[in-house]
Structure formats: structure tokens, C-alpha cells
Amino acid sequence: MQQNSNNTRHLKNERLKTIKPGYRGNKTIDGRFANGDELYTPGFEKVLRWQLSRNPQREQKQRDDYTPLVHKGTDFLHDDRDMLVWLGHASFFIRLNGLTFLTDPVLYDLPMVKRKVGLPCTPDQLRNIDFLLISHAHRDHLDKKSVRALHAQNPQVKALAPLRSGDLLRSIHPNLPYQEAGWFQKYDLVPDQVEVYFLPASHWHRRGLLDLNKVLWGSFVLKTPDLTLYFAGDTGLNNHFTEIEELLGPMDVCLMPVGAYKPSFLMQQSHLNPHEAVKAYNQLRGGIFVPMHYGTYDLSDEPPSEPVRLLEQLAASGVLQGLRIPAIGEPVLLQPLL
User: Fold this and answer.
1) Which helix (H) or strand (E) holds 254?
2) Where is 70: in which H helix or E strand?
3) CA–CA distance, 224 with 252 (Å, rounded to integer)
4) Predicted TM-score of the model (pTM)
5) Which string of DSSP letters, residue by residue, matches 289-316?
6) What is the pLDDT of residues 276-302, one digit of tens each?
7) What is the DSSP string of 204-240?
8) Cα(170)–Cα(27) distance, rounded to whole angstroms?
9) Which residues, listed in sequence order, are joined to residue 2 by a DSSP beta bridge?
10) For this UniProt entry, what's an example GO CC term (predicted)?
11) Measured distance between the N- and C-terminal CA atoms of the chain, rounded to whole angstroms
């Protein structure tokens, strides 16, 4: 850790490998993580403006009853092929080289927000999970009930998480092993057949009144000799996509957030709309594009079917290659890429 006189520090896990040459660690200012070099504080006045303004797509949204399809079953849990399976919102089951990962585990209703669509199986059927990948600690990405349910059925599971998330994880389950990483760091808890890196995202943190940006946020890359997979977490559009591609090469699979983008005055700095997600995917030189962060919870003003409709239009225009829109519970096999 390096400290300057103006309460600016750079933090990283000193035990872990840092893959960006010369990178000192994540910048904090007065104990709060910066988005790169600058602090980002979501303004309460923008939230108030949103609550007091009328959604121009209100009637369209009320008429839109879209929800993602759900393929029921547990076959994917017993299939040893490399695959990913969307579980809704930002939760994916991923199997690579015999290891299993579950991203941003949120399997139930959120506080004051009901889940609109079910799971392919019950949460207690999600077994043989090796690692939880936690991109950040917003409640729609890190849910206490979900983590506790997963740990009950997977006592061997470990969490790969951002810097300063340890206290929160211990409060969720004191027996959950975890490892924290800063941006551009490689976790060393993972067996050699899969490399896991924590990388930048343009976002922020808050779970309570007094913890604004006290815990880091980010994205993940999972890398084998044959395949590189990118999980974006939550992010706005920024220059980190180009930097990730330069460090780790083209992304064979990109799991990209495409929902919760309206109104743009509130959402633009921390979420991607479909056009921005495709721009980021092209900066990553992506192969397969799998959308997420839509259709599961009502968090914003856009009609629920709009993200899928826009992605299909972009694919038809040739701007987006490799679009896959799986149902919840539908395996996307990764073996053909090898």
C-alpha cells in the first residue's frame, strides 16, 4: 500500500500477481474507491428527479409483458462439457475445464423488488459449485439469502471478490472462504486449469447509508489455454474495455449487461444500454455475445423487451456478430470454440 499526504492511497492484494505493468493499485480518496482516478458519487438529486418525473415510455412499459423464457431442469449441473447457463439477471453457472463458477448470485426476490421470472431449478439443487464470482456488492448482485443457500449445498465453495469485501462476506456467512483482489490482479485460489482475473468496471458501491464506495467493484476474465471469457458485472462505458483486450487478448465469450439504462441522466455512468454494450463488445474483439441484466427485475424505465429488440436490430445490421440470447436454464456450449 502506498500513501500520499492528501489522504490518497493505492490498494491491492500484495499477495497476488498484478498483470498491468507499473500499476500501483486501486486509488482511494479519504477511504473511498475512485473510478480509476476520480471519485464518482451518485447524486441524490438525480434519484429525486427520476422519482418525480414521468417516464415517457410509461404506457409502452405497462403494456409490455415480456419475460425471458425458462428451460426447467438440472441436466446442466451433471454435464461435464464446458458451458455457461444464464440463471437470470447477472447470475450465470459456468463450467470451464472441470471447474464450476457462479457469478453474482441473486436467486430470490430483492428488497422491495419481486423477481419476475423463475429459475431452471430450485436454489438447493445448485450443487458442486467451486467458486462464487462477486463483481460488486449492490444487492442485485450480492444477495445474502442466495449466498447462504448456496453455501448450505456447497460447503466447499469459495468466493472471489473485490477489495474490502471481506467484512461483508463474513457477515453473510462466517465460514465462507474468500479472496479479495484489486483491478488487474490474478486470484491464486483457483487451480491451474483456469486463470481468473479481476479487472476494471465503471461503477460504484453502496449497501447502507455510510458505506459509499468503501468496497471495490469490477469485472472478471476467466482464461483457459483454449478460451477467454469476460463477465462485465455492472459498468458504464469507459476506456477499460480496450485496456482489458490489450492485456488479455480478444474475448471469445462476452457476458454483457444490457438493461437498467433509462433514464440515461441517472443510469449512463454506471450501466450500459444495448448500443453501448455492443460498442464495448467490439472493443473487446468479442466472439459470442450473451446479454444479461435484463428481464429479471424491474429496476428502470425502459420497457422490458426493449433490450432484446435493440440487440436483434443491431445483429441484423451487422454491427453485432455472435449474438446469443439463451433462455434461462438453456446451456450455451463452449466446446465448439476449442
Assistant:
1) strand 253-257
2) none
3) 11
4) 0.94
5) EEEESSSSS--SSS-TTHHHHHHHHHHH
6) 999 999 999 999 999 999 999 999 888
7) ---SSSS-TT-S---EEEEE-SS-EEEE--S--S-TH
8) 24
9) 10
10) cytoplasm
11) 40
Sequence-ordered list of residues with C-beta below 8 angstroms from that of 235, at least 6 positions apart, any chain: 201, 202, 203, 219, 257, 270, 271, 272, 280
List, in sequence order, every beta strand (DSSP E) within the chain.
Answer: 2-3, 8-11, 17-18, 26-29, 32-33, 83-86, 92-96, 99-103, 131-133, 158-162, 178-181, 185-186, 195-199, 219-223, 228-231, 253-257, 288-292, 331-333
**Cell matching residue 181:** 483482489
CATH of the domain at 202: 3.60.15.10
**3-class secondary structure, 17:** strand
* Cβ atoms 282, 318 nearer than 8 A: no
How many domains in the chain? 1
Tell me, what amino acid is at 313? Q
Domain assignment of residue 289, given as a range: 2-14+24-39+69-333
Residue 57 inside a domain? The answer is no
Of 208, 229, 209, nearest in space to 220 by CA: 229
**What distance in Å separates the CA atoms of residue 94 and residue 189, rounded to the nearest whole number?**
17
Residues in the chain, overall count: 338
Measured CA to CA, the distance from residue 152 to residue 148 in angstroms comes to 6
